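pasting for ref. prot 1 ->
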Amino acid sequence: MNHTEVLTRYVTNFVDELVANGLTDAVISPGSRSTPLALTLAEHKEIKDWVIIDERSAAFFALGLAKKSKRPVVLVCTSGTATANYYPAIVEAYHSRVPLIVLTADRPHELRGIGAPQAIDQIKMYGDFVKWFHEMALPEAGTAMLHYVRNKAASAYYIAKEGNQGVVHLNFPFREPLMVDFSFNDVWEINDISCTSPILPTFEGKKHLPKQQVEEILRQLAGKQRGVIVCGPQTDLDFPVAVTKLAEKWGLPILADPLSQVRSGAHVSDEIIEGYDALLRNQTVREKLKPDFIIRFGAMPVSKAYSFYLKQHQDALQMVVENDEGFREPTNNPTTFIFAEPTIYCEALANAGVETTSKEWLQLWKQFNDIAKKHLNDQSDSEIREGEAIRAVMDSTPNQSTIFVGNSMAVRDLDSFFWKTDKQIEVLANRGANGIDGVVSSGLGACAAGVRVTLVLGDLSFFHDMNGLHAAMHYQLPLTILLINNNGGGIFSFLSQADDKKHFEALFGTPLHIDFKYVVHMYGGYYVHAKTEADVKQKLIESYNREGLSVIEVKTNRDINANWHKSKWQAIEQEILEERNR
């Protein structure tokens, strides 16, 4: 068997085993050393291959696709610095628990460390941000080698999605010549055995607490009347129904993060408090809402005001429910961690037949929530504000749709202006490491899962990833972008840095002074500028009936926007305090 046949059977069996385990999508960055993998992934009839030229964009594209599809996606690149460009998205995938299978091509061992071109140390280069690293063996002939590659492929797919999902990294050293030949007989199979997969199907149960532990938790909660359920970022679409039933049964308010998937859907109920970020900004109000216990599901909420709430009430009994492992509690408050499948846990508590709270407690939260929504919903006759642009998105977005939101101000405005609705809207974001890089590519990756996506982001996030728009043009992906352009870093206007008038604009405001319509046109997209809330709504609706990329730009002023938000929060605080003092 010659070199080409050995190489071909090696990579075809590896790729075919990924498909046998469930792989459907591969994101490929062009290069020479990765030729065997790239050609084989493109050749397999059951894989959709996406060719993204820029490796950083490719990695974030795969991240968005995996996040939306909820299954592992393969990433492939050549050797050298191409592999390093995957790093930011791998960090994000680790922290947000998204399954990626990273396949990096490499020089063979004899070409490492001697000055060969495009050869860097790729062994465990992503450090602890991957769940598993494996240096693949050089291709050899024989059935044992084909068993080996299938074993590693099956292991990679399983490890990426089991437990806390994440990244696996396999490094492939290849000798030249690099071309493969699919004309060999039975090239996708191990010829001398009837079962092509060396790893049989795996069966994995879901974690639940035994009856004795549920009873112990109930004993700890006994007599505590002022409880709060907190739902942070998570992507399980079955969870909202279960947690809402628990809240209804126990009479508890749900502080629902916009990324919790709890604010929208047929399950929505009065127990959901979506205005809590505005409510908890005042210390006196936080004291009036002092809890006896907190049960949190998902990651830490976006709201900084909620973190103030936790720090002010460190004596409250706090329980954090995690699917598998991890200790996500950044305030370092005393916390009981419960490792169980959240839906099963909610059902267990709901079926316990225990009422732990008073009607007055829940009514207080509802009353305050109504005050917050009243002020946040006030209409403005002047030019559009950023929060009003978010309101327009939520009013216009159709049922059964997806919103991908950028970090910084965009996700915080979504937190403030996303009212609960019976429309089913999945909300996604890169909130693992909370960076502004790669957001355009991640939104397009979510589109690649076969849905129209509305991407909401600021001008700096857009600028950071403009080359990600090439995928929209190349694949005609159905993406609507609401670009909120305040000419810089709007979130810094809310922070203490804004008081430094000498250096603020250069170091924090960072105005771009870019006319983005030329960028959109360069990538074949449709561009329009909207000036009012009604205008944004209309142009969003029109975009949903248009193929390909549509960008709706809203231009705002950072200082005016900050003052507008602060006036809203002050009005809410004033009415709540006046109401409680009557």
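and prot 2 ->
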Amino acid sequence: MQLEAYWGVGPKTRERLEAELGAERAVEAIESADIGALVDAGIPRGRVVRILRRANADGDVDRFGTSDARDVYDELLSLAASYALTERAGDRIRVMSPLSSDGARRERLETVTAARDAWIDLEEPTRERVTEAFAAYDDAGATDRAAVRAALSLREAGFRGGTFGALADLDEGGLSDAADALGAVRLADSAPPGAAVAEADSDDLAVRSGTDGRLDRLREELEAVEELENAAFDVIETVRERGAQDLEAFQSGVVEYVASETGLSTGEIRSAAPDDAVDASDYVSRTLRELVAEQRERVTDREREVAAELQEDVATADEDVEAAIAAVDDIAFALSLGRFAAAHDLQKPTLVDEAVLAVSNARNLFLSGEVQPVTYAVGEHDLAGTSNGGEPAPPSGDRVAVLTGANSGGKTTLLETLCQVTLLADMGLPVPADRATVGRFDTVVFHRRHASFNAGVLESTLKSIVPPLSDEDRTLMLVDEFEAITEPGRAADLLNGLVELTVSRDALGVYVTHLADDLSPLPDSARVDGIFAEGLTQDLELEVDYQPRFGTIGKSTPEFIVSRLVANARDRAARQGFEKLAEAVGEEAVQRTLSDARWER
């Protein structure tokens, strides 16, 4: 395949890749999602990730209808990659994409769930052995030999079933010999880019020192002869100083001296010496030059012999070597995702073909600390019982929910949580909820509140969120405070239109707004939910029940905010100003709130 056939690879990128890696190796790096090789070739990491996501996509990376949805996707993969056991596993996670079929989603989901359970079941010392095996693999440069050694280490530790099942049938003896052989040779500098030790020609292999005693001795002799050749004048002076008076004595002295300095036999040296030397300098230089050439040939011949023998050991275990390399790569990938799932208590969702999104006790992965889980749903679902907050389970069958309520009440966080659940399930990963039913969506539109108020922002927002609803594809709409980009009266009209369009197109949607009272009667398959602030904590922080109450308009409860401002005011003038606001919002309610907060203290 031509490099420019890949998305994002233009003429300049192609030229750089060909210069640094060669066309064949560059294609291999793209196809295998080798981020490191492409970054080392001088391509910016962000661009490499974008290229590889499209080149290796199992589904459609363009299904994100907005940049906000893509941002959540990027953040999810960055978070998951932080649990990678190897650099290669991290690279594979970063280029994951939504999967194209329900079968592929379910298959990966089973794999990752099994890996999560396997990781949870490992005791801490055993986990350390696993992480050490993969760390050694990375430290050794993720070579074929490092993969074989990692496979052997995992087998020796008893990991042969379940997630580690690919290791079960490997021949340990053959792999051990192959690992030794792979460790004894390396690709020579003359080897073509992308060559592999097992398939390389023996001329392209270099045998490491310490592998073969005879080869090491030949190399030492060659090095000694080369040193003498580089100091031929010193050889002449040394021999003359030892008393050689005529040419014959000089020649004999040279032979004996070279033999003593290099370890070569006098016969080897005499056979390399010229018979027609015109003087001492000619004799020494030609003798040493010929010796260097002959010795290099001896080293090359022996190196080829040893390399061929080592390749034989690798070839004998070729199938096991390839299986070990693939197994280590796949196990590290699955187990890394399993670690991610275990760390965040991710659970396997129920994947369905219908348009539905229902979560029970869902949590936002981007929040830290203690988080109140939330139960929510749009579409037909079977969540039973009550939500975490004790409210009834969300009604089933509503295609659109209009979410209202207190400022800082977690409405945007809920939208982001629903987006996280959808995207994770779309990639075949467990989700941050006790239970979840997730349907298939062709487009996910997530739109955060943007604090800009002009015609340009309104136009660009409408152009990003309306077209997905105009297609026949299944669309999930998660839109936050639409009124922030136009005047409230007109925003209510536009929001009514979006709700009706969502329902008419059989899409699903959750729309966050403070304009619920201004909306026209909603379609039968739409409802209004509310989040309520309940007061102030003893630290005068807003206390919110983040679990929406279904079929109820939430309240912003400004008296709580004003109460906090009154209580925290240190300047007399500022306090008087806030007290004036308290009169406007209801002085009695403010005083009651302040009294309750002080009582808690």
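The chain has 23 helices and twelve strands.
Residues 597-601 have pLDDT under 50 and may be disordered.
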